[in-house]
């Protein structure tokens, strides 16, 4: 059956009483059928044909809808397949990257922001503490810490010539030396400096 191109629900029955259909009426009229009866017959024929066309139109709509939904399902399945394939490829690439670059995925611990500045004494003082040797409290006073800041640009691997206890000279690490003229012995510290240094040296130990 040929496909309908227009909706028969929008069609209207022609006026078969019009002069345009005079020949059509004459073909139905005879001694038993009047012209008025012919008009009724033509209207009935049109109505039957229009009802059949309406049924065919609805079937076309249903078939078009089913075909469209079927194509949409196929497209959705293909899209899901492609997305899953892309996901699998990305997951495999990420696993491979995790194997090759473990440090990149190291979890960074969540730490609170420190509420006070870190105490950074001089390299010489830290060197003494690490060796368990005596170190003057002056290095942990404000003056000592300020002096450490000024000398922080010195390369830790730098070597300098120093005078040893026996009078000999030797190359020693710059971090193991001090400026003796600036250092104040513990017994000569001011009480204020003493109060600053004690908790700092305890924390550093």
Description:
- By secondary structure, the chain is mainly alpha-helical.
- 51% of the residues lie in helices and 5% in strands.
- It is built from five helices and two strands; from the N terminus they run ααααββα.
- Strands 1-2 form a two-stranded antiparallel sheet.
- The protein is rod-shaped, with a radius of gyration of 52 Å.
- The model has no long low-confidence stretch (mean pLDDT 83).
SSE layout:
Blueprint: H1 22-28, H2 35-100, H3 123-131, H4 142-150, E1 159-163, E2 169-173, H5 191-204
Antiparallel strand pairs: 1-2
Short précis:
The chain is built from five helices and two strands.
Strand content: under 5%
Integer average pLDDT = 83
**Main β-sheet description:** 2 strands, antiparallel
Oligomer state equals: single chain
Quote the distance from N terminus to C terminus. 99 Å
Please list the strands of the largest sheet in the order they lie side by side.
1-2
Helix/sheet category: mainly alpha
The portion of residues assigned to helices is: 40-55%
- Continuous helix count: 5
The run of helices and strands is: HHHHEEH
